[in-house]
Amino acid sequence: MEEKYKKHAIYQTQLENDNQKLIYEVDNLKDLCEEYEELLVELKRQFKDKSRECEHQKRDYKDL
């Protein structure tokens, strides 16, 4: 009976450790997603600015 208890305790500890590792990985992935979302917003803003600038230059060249 004591052997079963030890095995169960070891198994439980392993499960808890695995769970903590997975929680850590999920948190890291969430952080990474948040960083990518922020980067995407910034890149969209830059694209919009560049597109606007390009349209202005097209009009200027057309006027010339």
Characterise this structure.
The chain is an all-alpha fold. It contains 1 helix and no strands. It has one helix spanning 2-63. The radius of gyration is 27 Å and the shape is rod-shaped. The N and C termini lie far apart (93 Å).
List keywords for this structure.
mainly alpha; 1 helix; 0% strand
**Secondary-structure-derived class:** mainly alpha
Q: What average pLDDT do the residues reach?
A: 95
Task: Describe the sheet with the most strands.
Answer: none
Which residues sit in consecutive blocks of at least 5 with pLDDT less than 50?
none
Oligomerization category of the chains in this entry: single chain
Distance between the termini: 93 Å
Strand percent estimate: under 5%
Number of strands: 0
SSE order: H
Based on CA atoms alone, the radius of gyration comes out at: 27 Å
SS element count, helices: 1
Form type = rod-shaped
Fraction of residues in H or I helices: over 70%
Quick rundown:
With 64 residues, the protein is mainly alpha-helical.
What is the fold's blueprint, element by element?
Blueprint: H1 2-63
